[in-house]
Amino acid sequence: MSFAEAFQFFLWAMLATLVVGGVAPLLGGHLLLRRTGLYGLVLPQFASAGVALGYAVLPWWIAVFGLGGRTLDEALADPHAASNVLLGFAALATAVGLAVQAAFARARATESARAVGAFAVAGAATLLLSQLSPMGAEYVDSLLRGEVLAVGVHEFEVLAAGGLVAVLLLLRFQNALLLCGFDPDTARVQGLSLVRHEWVLLGALGLVVATGTLIVGPMVLFSLLVLPPLGARSLSRSQRGFFRWSVALGLASAVAGLVVSLRLDQPLGPAVALAAAALSTAAWALSRRQRALP
């Protein structure tokens, strides 16, 4: 397939991937600096369980609340019809994931233990709920792998709006978020509310995770939340440089993943994940070489 044909048929899917490539690394950078980077792995899995739950209860939802007058067959034939319902379930499951992590933190479990336990539970729930989907587990699995080529203008608008709100929150509270994460005592002396700013970051994260998981899939999302900031950390010499490198590597990973996916007809999720891993590894190797030079 030529790139002209790709732009014609998959424009919104490509734009959605680029939005995630630019926004997710910014959030992932804040998580990494706070030593909570594994949230980027756990929360998309919870959102995936929410999407699977949304599909599982879709017949009940249509029977009780309705879906714009559509029958179940009509809703299943139109992948965009139930997107708002599924987004609601993804957001709810993301909130549950945040609550679970907070509960584990109060129990003084380590971050890795919290992440492993929560990921296992959310992964099992996703697999079990996907079996109950009226469209079959195969459809849900393809969505969660990152088969995003059916993304339309409505889904892109939802994702872009969520990403814009998240970026505006990060820009508005960036200095306060960094101070609260690095030096809570000084933040208190400066009159900053740790709880308030924690909710600002988690709210932005939850918004991007819920919309991104539904529209581009959890694999695309967590690879761009986690891997570009890891590569950026080895290249940067300042906080501004860290976030700029994170976004640059995220966008490069998204572009490379799209090229591989479209050229080789492969799922987008694994293509983006491998591209992000390769670029982050290259960044680490480059920084090592520069440091080794006299």
Tell me what portion of residues adopts beta-strand conformation: under 5%
Total individual domains: 1
The main β sheet shows up as: none
CATH hierarchy: architecture: Orthogonal Bundle
Q: In percent, how helical is the residue content?
A: over 70%
The first-to-last residue Cα distance is 47 Å
Order of helices and strands: HHHHHHHHHHHHH
Shape: globular
The fold-level CATH name is: ABC transporter involved in vitamin B12 uptake, BtuC
- CA radius of gyration: 19 Å
Explained architecture:
Helix 1 (3-33) runs antiparallel to helix 12, helix 5 (83-106) packs across helix 10 (194-216) and helix 11 (218-235) packs across helix 12. The radius of gyration is 19 Å and the shape is globular. It has 294 residues and is mostly helical. The model has no long low-confidence stretch (mean pLDDT 83). Helix content is 83%, strand content 0%. The chain has helices spanning 3-33, 39-56, 58-64, 72-77, 83-106, 111-130, 137-145, 153-182, 184-189, 194-216, 218-235, 239-264, 268-292. It has a single domain, classed as ABC transporter involved in vitamin B12 uptake, BtuC, CATH 1.10.3470. The longest helix has 31 residues, at 3-33. The chain contains 13 helices and no strands. The relative contact order is 0.17.
Short description:
Helix 5 runs antiparallel to helix 6 and helix 11 packs across helix 12. The chain is mainly alpha-helical and 294 residues long. 83% of the residues lie in helices and 0% in strands.
